[in-house]
Amino acid sequence: MFYDEKIETASPEELKKIQSERLVDAVKRVYENVSYYREKMDAVGLKPEDIKSVDDLHKLPFTYKQDLRNAYPFGAFALPKSQVARIHASSGTTGKQTVVGLTNQDIDMWANCVARCLTSIGVTNDDIIQVAYGYGLFTGGLGLHYGSEKICALTVPVSGGNTRRQIQFMQDFKTTVLCCTPSYALFIADELKKMGLTKDDLYLKHGIFGAEPWTEAMRKDIEEKLGLEAHDIYGLSEIIGPGVSMSCLEHDGMHINADHFIPEIIDPETGEVLPEGEKGELVFTCVTKEALPLIRYRTRDLTSLTFQKCACGRTTPRMAKVMGRSDDMLIIRGVNVFPSQIESVLLECPEVEPHYMIYVDRVNNLDIMTIEIEMSDHFHYDSIKEIEKLEKKLNSEIASALGVSGNVKLVEPGRIPRSEGKAKRVIDRRELK
Ligand code: DLL
Questions:
Q1: N or C: which end of the chain has fewer CB within 10 A?
Q2: How far, in Å, from the CA of 380 to the mean position of ligand 1?
């Protein structure tokens, strides 16, 4: 099913034409209205007239999160505040928040992008969508909400938290679509079990999960526990929020709404644009946004792109699952480690749950990584010997997956704090010393 078939199935030439026209206009707007873009472009001797099509995109300077922080709160807006209808803030935990602005037209464009995503998996106005992403400055709740209303699905704006009530609503309203972070979906599954219920007591058909990295194995786990088809939705507040891209029923990458957000993959070290299929940092240029039209924004998310037509019929570029962030990546004794690699090992091991916490310390100049992992409640953990055996097995599997060894500590079920939003899985204590 298509929401906007002409765009979703446009030929590469047609898409390029739309992107180019919009890019020329966006560059002109930012040069005229946003001082840091004018300064950056002047510094490299670039005038708006030099940008004639997407082929010239690579000439433009990058925009970084720091640029938005420097412009805090409203200095990056390309329009006077009187035309900006709403703000959101990114969920960053370090430094100043980044404030993003949306005009009424931006909000409508965003709702249309989310509506496209929902329609691509067959969600219609017959569905009941429970939005369990947080509402507020975080874009998850309101982003899914407006998209859901756009297609006139029955929208339940429950927000995150109060898990038993979530389950009660799912039963009473016969919710068919659940939207939340993948870690919260697992938490809901735990609670369901504690309540003595199973997936058969629910009516879920689809889950729309995102806002944090998750693996293919975790997708299968959630699908099994909640009895639904799980889809990956991606986005970031600086661009719009959820709905920059989403996986279709083929589960073969996330379709990017590329008539609004032009993607590139670059080498995060050199800034050089990488060819199709190569893994690197995702960069977006927002060509239709009015309040905050970002040019070559460095997302820090690591993925790859494909421009091949999808079996679903869409021709829009697709991004692979985000495998981590270039800045969230841990470097343990010189080795790059992503929490998702540890998660994949845990999901292969039936004796443990995919709930874990990584602590990194530096002892005598040596990085020590301790991984607390929750045992599954059907594993008999009263025998110390068995626990040690399992710890040993996990230690060796993690070491071979990561290329660096850690220190696995098994903990009893329910010990690792659960999250109703994005899960915090890493505590790096090295900087504190
Ligand atoms: O997390 C927007 C969102 C809300 C997306 C709900 C999907 C669902 P921020 O708080 O600005 O916005 O965080 C953006 O989260 O740069 C990625 O690192 C990460 N992220 C978002 N979606 C995914 C995903 C929202 N599907 C940052 N897979 C991004 C992996 C994701 N990481």
A1: C
A2: 37
